[in-house]
């Protein structure tokens, strides 16, 4: 039987100033000590979508000892330039597929510009997903990463998550992980776990009233994905 795959999920960094860089630099060694296969950032990398901010985050990410993947959040959209600054620094990191061992991962841009609520999956994202589907092996366990949560029970979630999830009905979707809502939630869609987690940001608070910031350590097997929340402050 293949060995379990370990990966880390960080959401909502909201990089704002040099103090944020210090905050993240203190956290990264603890993540490296876990020796994950990769790290996934679930959007809102920055507070304000400028090229300098994205480049500072990019520099921070070089401190990880493993590959890092990203997906954009609504804060990663510039009010007038759209996703352009993000795309310059993180090219080909909006709608894409990647694989490790016997698992495949799908990352999708679920944003509509800078809007933070009442957001629906855009038609161009659904078109991108349909284009990506042939690249997905229907026999492999699949994990979906988005910025906006996919459970309608979670505040600020997508308004039409079923439209997206229906396109993956013939694939072995083992879990979805979203950001945007800063709090730990777990709901299910036809038996598929839909997760969110507290944010990792220094400059933002959690939405669920908790004070612990942190990240998820995920251990994936062919049958399931176990998640463990690791707090980085009290």
Mind describing the biggest β-sheet?
6 strands, mixed
Content of β-strand: 15-25%
Number of distinct helices: 5
**pLDDT < 50 runs, ≥5 residues:** none
Element order: H for helix, E for strand: EHEHEHEEHEHEEEEE
The residue fraction in helices comes out at 10-25%
CATH superfamily: Metallo-dependent phosphatases
Number of domains: 1
Strands, count: 11
Indicate the CATH class: Alpha Beta
**Shape assignment:** globular
The CATH architecture can be named as 4-Layer Sandwich
CATH topology: Purple Acid Phosphatase, chain A, domain 2
Q: Specify the structural class.
A: alpha/beta
- Termini separation comes to 38 Å
Radius of gyration, whole Å:
16 Å
What's the rounded overall pLDDT mean? 95
Across the major sheet, the strand order is 4-5-6-7-9-8
Description of the structure:
It contains five helices and eleven strands. The protein is an alpha/beta fold and 234 residues long. The chain has a single domain (5-231), classed as Purple Acid Phosphatase, chain A, domain 2. The longest helix is centred in the N-terminal third of the chain and has 16 residues, at 18-33.
In short:
The chain has helices spanning 18-33, 51-61, 84-89, 123-132, 161-166, and strands at 5-10, 38-41, 68-70, 96-100, 103-107, 141-145, 172-177, 185-189, 192-196, 214-220, 225-231. The protein is α/β, with parallel strands linked by helices and 234 residues long.
């Amino acid at each position: 039987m293949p060995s379990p795959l370990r990966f880390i999920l960080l959401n909502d960094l909201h990089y704002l100033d040099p103090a944020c860089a210090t905050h993240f630099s203190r956290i990264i060694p603890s993540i490296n000590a876990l020796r994950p296969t990769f790290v996934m950032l679930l959007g809102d990398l920055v507070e304000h979508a400028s090229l300098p901010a994205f480049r500072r985050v990019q520099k921070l990410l070089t401190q990880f000892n493993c590959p890092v993947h990203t997906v954009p959040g609504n804060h990663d959209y510039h009010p007038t330039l759209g996703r352009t600054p993000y795309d310059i620094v993180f090219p080909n990191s909006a709608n894409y597929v990647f694989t490790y061992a016997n698992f495949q991962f799908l990352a999708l841009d679920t944003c509509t510009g800078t809007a933070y609520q009442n957001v629906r999956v855009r038609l161009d994202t659904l078109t991108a997903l349909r284009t990506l589907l042939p690249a997905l092996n229907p026999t492999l366990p699949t994990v979906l990463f988005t910025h906006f949560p996919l459970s309608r029970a979670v505040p600020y979630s997508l308004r039409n998550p079923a439209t997206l999830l229906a396109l993956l009905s013939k694939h072995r979707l083992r879990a979805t992980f979203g950001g945007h809502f800063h709090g730990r939630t777990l709901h299910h869609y036809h038996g598929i776990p839909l997760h969110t987690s507290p944010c990792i940001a220094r400059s933002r608070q959690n939405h669920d009233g908790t004070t612990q910031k942190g990240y998820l350590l995920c251990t994936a097997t062919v049958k399931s994905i176990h998640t463990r929340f690791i707090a980085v402050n009290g």
